[in-house]
Amino acid sequence: MILSVRNFYWDRGIMAGATLTLYREKTVITALEGGTEQVLLTLKANRITLPLGNKIGRETMVIRGQNMPDTLRMASLVYAEARRSRTLLRREPPPDWRRMWDGLNLTNRSRNTAGRWIAVYGNGMPNFASSPCRFTHLFERLTQGREMTQPVLDAAAMELGQNGRRVRILHASRAGVVISMDPAQLRCAIQMRDNGQESSFSFTVPANEKGVNLGVVLEIAAHYVEGHSTVVFLDKVRGLVETRSVANSNITANEIKTVLERRRDLTRLISNFESIAPVRYRPERPMFLAS
């Protein structure tokens, strides 16, 4: 469907100067029953939309995930699959989404693996969900790849509020990763959190560099996000060591070893990317790459 980054701009009315955003979302669904408002569900998720298209047609893919790195890496795989095919949603046989997700699990050596899930939607319909959720299926059917606006939330609440039950949906989202594209370059800005504090950095690469495409940038962004989480974890360990309280924590030596190995893996992957493409950082190169 998409042959290269430059071909991503075939329709300048839609794709030129496109911006992709991964949102960190929190959705709370409540119901009023017997005069008491009860929480039915609290859903924390990450969500990114890929507006794929060529002269034959357009397909809007949405990837949802439990954490940012998984969501970005699955989006990268979806994009790579789209580059190999004229269509994702009408292809026979369809893409093997389960194989893609299982492949991510096999290569994942991160510390936090519990509760991980991923879901892929095409034009509002579920293509794959490792942990199916009827609420996210409803949201995606109503948004059709667009943002979670108040009219969408109201429509979802109306569908859920049957049998006289009054349902409210509270939704908040913040941008976690923003990728801006033009014919000359791809710029990726990443918002990071550390003990309640937020910071950001960005990297920029030429769009016409050999070995560079949107899928690669999505994957590299995932490496940066996960790399930052290793810094946060190891800083916590250092603090525990300084206060001589490691033994009283639930952190194990094997867990520390796993994070150190993962940081080395991520540093190598990013360094390999830097060797094939001129990467410009702002304000500076992430600290875990130098440690």
Description of the structure:
The chain is an alpha+beta fold and 291 residues long. The protein has one domain. The protein has six helices and nine strands. It has a nine-stranded antiparallel β-sheet, sandwiched between helices. The two termini are 40 Å apart.
Provide a quick synopsis of the model.
The protein has 291 residues and is of the alpha+beta class. The chain has six helices and nine strands.
SSE map:
Blueprint: E1 19-33, E2 36-53, E3 58-65, H1 68-83, H2 97-107, E4 118-122, E5 125-129, H3 134-143, H4 150-160, E6 166-181, E7 185-194, E8 197-206, H5 214-242, H6 253-276, E9 280-282
Antiparallel strand pairs: 1-2, 1-6, 2-3, 3-4, 4-5, 6-7, 7-8, 8-9
Helix pairs in contact: 1-5, 3-4, 5-6
Portion in beta strands: 25-35%
Question: Largest sheet at a glance?
Answer: 9 strands, antiparallel
Number of distinct helices: 6
Number of folding domains? 1
Alpha carbon gyration radius: 20 Å
Task: Tell the overall outline.
Answer: globular
> Whole-Å distance between the termini?
40 Å
* Helix-strand category: alpha+beta
Uncertain residue segments? 1-16
Task: Based on the model shown, name its key terms.
9 strands, disordered N terminus, single chain, 6 helices, nine-stranded antiparallel sheet, 291 residues, alpha+beta
